[in-house]
Specification:
2 copies of one chain form a homodimer. With about 280 residues, the first copy, chain A, is α+β, with helices and mostly antiparallel strands. Chain A has a domain at about 5-80: Glutaredoxin, CATH 3.40.30.10. Chain A is built from 11 helices and 4 strands. In chain A, strands 2-1-3-4 form a 4-stranded mixed sheet, with helices on one face. The longest helix of chain A has about 35 residues, at about 95-125. The relative contact order of chain A is 0.13. Chains A and B meet through helix 4, helix 5, helix 8 and helix 11 of A and helix 4, helix 5, helix 8 and helix 11 of B.
Chain lengths: ~280, ~280
């Protein structure tokens, strides 16, 4: 049992002290969800093995009353297994499978493309001793292109990335959380991607009235405003220009897959439309 | 309690007797998963209100010892609530939220596009009294275009639709079922889309060695080969041509999001690569 209800978390931070890693963000939420306080060990990418006594090259890592646990998913599973009487993070094996698929979708759809927009801020905001590592490792990831070149054209890409998030908006129009009535580890995995975004967003990525905002605001406010670190930037406020795609669907027709048939009254209008009769 | 362990299911069929509706397919699997036998009431689109005594315009519907239950999701929830001691379909509220998002993704990615390839077979295979309804309602859905015109170019579209399913392949490379170690209602919702495909596939949609095949074959075999109806067509056997996109990724690099950090040994090769050192 965590001594004094405290768990030690090794953070991965920018110079502002804001967490940069989405995996660490997810772990912070997981630890808070289980009702523990955190002792944060600060630091950037440089010197992780030294800080952790050789335990790991990657973060997050936690120490729970002397026991080291590595890896954001393994930490969540450890917390559920060790503390089953506290609020559950992953309530069914299917939540992990489906949550990882949705997280992969979000990385492909937005996190990866946003990386091409915010890589310079990512590097510039990192702690000074990380600058060279972030520059060389990320330029290598992008086939040797210069960070300054990678971000060119981001004003054209941002409205399109926003538009591509519609599948997530549809889900959140119909559900309060990915966990259902209350947030679970899937919410935290996905919120963590937007917190990563906020940590590097030197210009906003989403428009002010994006329907995702309700879930994001509620999520950032959770656990005493865990996602409201002063080092984060506003992610809302994207200005669109003539010719940009609509940043979100302003006229969603509803998701036929989630309409429920409760009898003829519930389908009459749709039936009339399908038969070409005038639908009142 | 279902009398004699039997539940009555109102089917939505093609002339072959194969189920056409993915929602009815999902319900058949749900009823079988709970261990019930089914009394099938056959029929097509025409005359659903008459067949069901005015209870519904849409199928599936079940009758459990005199109690009518409509709607594929509501039926699954009813079965879990009424029979909690039998195998669970939806083990956590998050499974429904995440499963519906993944199902929406599959409809956008594949079911909708496949509809433009198989609409003629869909109509031609329907029961004779449905032909006119299917023709006029579907042509209206597609902005008034003729069914024969809608399917033009499908040989170009099929390899691309297949390629776009990669996110699902990644998930199934790493998990046996969407339910985890055993199938749950999310598997059934998604399998149902491929069973709909098999009901109308007058030419194959996927190549013989598609990595999805393992999950699909295991899924179609479940519950005594429920997905092996004689009226279904082979979905594997798509022939690709020069210039077609690869129908699936033959060199997946692995999903970084699902790699687990179990200590420095587990990350050493990746670390060397990121630092530009030669990775053995």
């Amino acid at each position: 049992m965590a001594k004094d209800n405290r768990i030690t978390l090794y953070d991965l931070q920018l110079a502002s002290g804001a967490t940069i890693s989405p995996f660490v963000w997810a772990t912070k939420y997981a630890v808070a969800h289980k009702g523990f306080d955190m002792d944060i060990v600060p630091g950037g990418f440089t010197g992780i093995p030294e800080r952790t006594g050789g335990k790991t090259e990657r973060l997050p890592a936690i120490v729970d009353d002397g026991q080291w646990v590595l890896d954001s998913w393994l930490i969540a599973e450890y917390l559920d297994e060790k503390y089953p009487d506290r609020p559950t993070l992953i309530g069914d094996p299917s939540v992990k499978v489906c949550g990882q698929m949705i997280e992969s979708w979000l990385w492909q759809t937005a996190v990866g493309p946003w990386m091409t927009c915010y890589l310079k801020a990512y590097r510039d905001r990192s702690v000074p001793e990380d600058h060279e590592y972030v520059t060389t490792s990320r330029e290598r990831m992008f086939g040797g292109r210069k960070i300054e070149d990678i971000i060119i054209g981001r004003e054209d890409r941002l409205p399109e990335i926003s538009a591509n998030l519609e599948l997530m908006r549809t889900t959140l129009r119909e559900n309060k959380w990915f966990g259902g009535d209350s947030p679970n580890y899937v919410d935290y995995r996905l919120l963590a991607c937007f917190l990563w975004l906020a940590s590097v967003a030197d210009i906003p990525a989403l428009v002010e009235d994006d329907p995702l905002r309700d879930w994001l605001d509620r999520g950032f406010d959770l656990h005493g405003g865990l996602g409201r670190h002063a080092g984060l930037s506003p992610i809302f406020g994207l200005q669109t220009r003539d010719g940009d795609p609509e940043p979100f669907n302003r006229n969603p027709v509803g998701n036929g897959l989630t309409k429920r048939n409760t009898g003829p009254e519930s389908t009459r209008t749709e039936t009339a439309m399908m038969k070409g009769q005038s639908a009142k």
